Structure formats: structure tokens, C-alpha cells
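Bug report

Summary: C-alpha cells for Protein nucleotidyltransferase YdiU differ between web form and batch submission.
Environment: batch mode, default settings.
Steps: 1) Submit the sequence below via batch. 2) Compare with the web form result.

Sequence submitted:
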Amino acid sequence: MTNKKELNTGWNFDNSYTNLPNSFFTSVKPNPVSSPKLIILNAPLAAELGLNIQALQSEDGAASLAGNQIPEGAFPLAQAYAGHQFGHFTMLGDGRAMLLGEQITPEGKRVDIQFKGSGRTPYSRGGDGRAALGPMLREYIISEAMHALGIPTTRSLAVVSTGEQVIREAALPGAILTRVAASHLRFGTFQYAAKWGTAEEIRSLADYALKRHYPDVEEDENRYLSLLKEVIKRHAMLIAKWQLAGFIHGVMNTDNMTISGETIDYGPCAFMDTYDPETVFSSIDVQGRYAYGNQPYIAGWNLARFAETLLPMLHDDEEKAIQLAQEAISEFIELYRRNWLSGMRAKLGLFNEEQQDESLLENLLSMMKEYRADYTNTFRALTIDNLEDHALFKTEEFAQWHELWQARLGRQDEDESSSKQLMKSSNPAVIPRNHRVEEALEAAVKQDDYSVMERLLGVLSNPYAHSPEQEEFCTLPPDSLGPFRTFCGT
């Protein structure tokens, strides 16, 4: 139902996804909750979307963000998709999420508005369709931190508590997250169409993806090959940005990879402290499939699965189609490597390129691993010339490396201040440290105290400021905390 007050919230829906064949979605309704209460609203994002912040902060606003009231023009639906989960293919779909509609912003941009934790759908696979408050707040914190770091990501508009409990290992307070995305088209959406759809249905999906995300190549002679190449380029950039920031997604299943190239589904993700390519946080990734150092290769594997879904459209001759797909996929690692090298050069204040740069970078990372140096703080220390706080900086090995680095800086036209500015804009002073995030969530969930989270969000909103206020958020967790583990939060 929609009431008069809701007309002022600013929703401006135009739902193009509903024009796809019915097999791609099921019309659903959010399950009403007993006592919706707005916990946090992303006011800058709301303004960007053309929404009325004051209206969303009202009682009716909280009800609409909980799904108790459906805004005019919305068309709630659950999307069907499949995916390789830890390498095993299965049928999936929005089991606890639903697409409310597509918002057209004042600038004419189209974005998905999705509820997460809004109740059961036909794809719930025995689940309750609900979400707990802690994981929803965690996604809010991490996704907004990613946005501030300049990493393509879905974003969080709001978290509403439901006044109800969800049963996991224990009874937990329930919540609904409102997520904003360029779209929720996934590699797994294409896998679903290729496995269970008709040739016409997968072609309509590919045409829709082109129109929505890559209109510049819609008229190319082989537009489906162009689609594949554009998605490859987006992910070569995205994964490089993950690696440069020390971000570990934790569950890089094909249903968690988007056609738009945005980071999506913040389940068991975390940021690395001590540098080690084998770092894994997820409690369910016992084999280390999605370890930090594996992420580029897994992305390539996932892209190959996406390419397989397009084969019938790449060429009428199957062998030729496979050849075209393989040639496109083979470019991914080189594209990724170039993006990563460019980003690493910037982290060291290097504007130009030299052949020896890669060995300079690899030698630094090798030392960081050997001496168990913190990834973010090492580059921060190099940026602000504070080479005192870690054993690494006291070694003869590092002294020799530092001399080579200084000589390398001296062989470029840009002066020292320009290099320092490049480093400051490339090396965050703060990341969402795991112990800080957990501290904020514990205060929120157990004590109903959101001040810790609000302060953390404030610090994370400008990670490249290198301000005195950020100093305490650069400290590492005490050793007594032990290895950090994350969970999917379902």
C-alpha cells in the first residue's frame, strides 16, 4: 500500500528488468515486519538519488525501507540466477533479497534499489529470508569504505531494524539493508539463462546488459564479443583495486560477480593486516580457494565461465566461438597486471615506467611477507616518512631497497612534493580494520550504541586525508585477539 506521505520520498521508479522474459524473475512482496526502526540512513547517497531525506527519516520512511509500505512505481521481484559456489555449479536466486525497483536519479542515472533480509522468496531454498542486524551493518560499513577508497561497489542506503529476531546459532536482532547497485546482473544470471533458458532468452539478457551497461558497443559488428571484452576490462580494473587496497572478498563465486564490474555481496570479506598472499578470513574457505593471492586467477576462471554462456552468440561455428572467447579471456591477466603495476607505481610515487619497477615492487612485498609487516601501514609509513615502527625498516635489506627506490624517484621529472602527493592519494591512511569493525558492531548490536560505528564511518569516509584524527585507527589489533575469522552472515 502507498499513502500520501510516501509520495514525497522522491522515489522515481522505471523498471526495465521486468521487460525481460518472466523466467528471469518472480514477482514477490516483502514480508511485513512488526516494528521497523531506522538505524542509519546514508544522507549523501539519498540526496544523490533524489530522495527526500526528511521523509525517509520519518516513521513512514522507516516503514517503506522495511517493505511494510511499497512506494508508488515499485515492482518488487526476486531475481533468478545460478552460479559456481566454490567450483560447484548450482541453481540459486534471491533467497533473502528482492529488487524493489530501478530508481532514475536527477542526473538520469539508473540504479537498482534492493532490499536484503526482506523475507522468503521462491528461491530461499529452505531459508527464512531474513537477515541479522550485525551483518547488515557490516555490509554498510565495508561497502561505504570501499566507495571512499575509490573501488567500484554496490552501496548502502539504509539499515532498518525489524523489531523481530532471527534464529541462527542464537536469537539475533533482525534487520533489512537497502542496497544500491548499477544493476544486479551477475555472471550467474547468464549461467542460469545458458543452462535453463532458450537461445532467445539468453540473447535478450545479453542485449539488456549491453543497453544498460555498455551502450557504446551496442552497435559493434560482434556486440556480444564486445560485451565479453568490456566485462573483462572492468574486472581487470576491479580486482587490481582490490589487491592494491588489501581487500579480500572471501566468496568469489560466479553469482557474486557483476556484469557492471561492481563489488557485490559483502559476506565474509575483510581487509588484510599482515601482508601474506595466502591470507584467508572466511570460515568456510578451508582450502584457501579465495585467498588474497588467488583473487586475480579466480576472477579469470569466473570470466571464463561467463564467456561460456556467450559462445552461441559469438560465432555460428562452435570452434571459432571458442577461439574468440579464449583470445578475449587470455588478455585478462595482462590487463589486470598492467592495472596493478600502475597502481603500485602510484603507491611508491612513480609517475613514469621503467623495466625494473616490477622487481622493485616484488622485492618490497617479499620483505613485507618475511617480516610480517602490515600492508596498509607499510605504504602509509613510506608516504609520511615514518620508518621507525616496524622491524622491517631496521633491516639492512630494507635499507638497500630504500636506496634503490630513492634513486628511482630521482630518475623522473616530477619533484619530491609531487611524488608525495601521488602517494598520499594512492595510499589510504585508514581501512576498516577488522577489530575496529567488530568493536563498532558489538556496541551497536549488544549495547544499542551507534556512536562507535558513526565515528568509524566518519574516519573511513576520507581515507586519504592522513589527518591526526585518523592516527588511532591505524593501530593494529592486539595479538591476544588471535586470527580473525569471518562468516557469511546468512
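Above is the batch result. After comparison, the two runs are identical; trailing whitespace caused the diff. Residues 223-245 form the longest helix (23 residues). The two ends are 29 Å apart (CA to CA).
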